[in-house]
Amino acid sequence: MSAPEKTVFELIVERAIPADIVFENDRVIAFRDIAPQAPVHLLVVPKSSEYRNVTELAAGDPALLAEVVAIAQQLADEYASGEYRLVFNTGSSVGQTVFHVHAHLLGGHLPEGSLA
Ligand code: 5GP
């Protein structure tokens, strides 16, 4: 049986493709989204490719999910005003394209009242 195809985020973790990395430790990496949807748009990504979405991460490693949130706050303090929106797309019908869990950290001035 052949190994499952690697996601683009696994390739970034392995340095097989470049990314503008803003944070890294042994469990989490964060980098700028290639197609930013906000003045600050970072992706906060557990390095493990074991979890396809936030539901799987929450069930499998809740401490790692908590770490992702703590790192998001740290990055928002550093790159935005400390205030931010965190989005986990879960499923292709709502726009998930990379099936390796990741948080979109959106900051800067976002339209008031809009969730899009
Ligand atoms: P999703 O739609 O799965 O929630 O989010 C995937 C995100 O990954 C998208 O916002 C997309 O712009 C970003 N993305 C896809 N390929 C690359 C890449 O090669 N490099 C970076 N930095 N971001 C990527």
UniProtKB/TrEMBL annotation:
The active site is at H102 (tele-amp-histidine intermediate). Residues 8-116 form the HIT domain. It comes from the Bacteria. Gene3D superfamilies: HIT-like. Pfam families: HIT. CDD domains: PKCI_related (cd01276). GO terms for molecular function: catalytic activity. A motif (Histidine triad motif) lies at residues 100-104. SUPFAM superfamilies: HIT-like. PANTHER family: HISTIDINE TRIAD HIT PROTEIN (PTHR23089). This is Histidine triad nucleotide-binding protein. The lineage of its organism: Bacteria, Bacillati, Actinomycetota, Actinomycetes, Micrococcales.
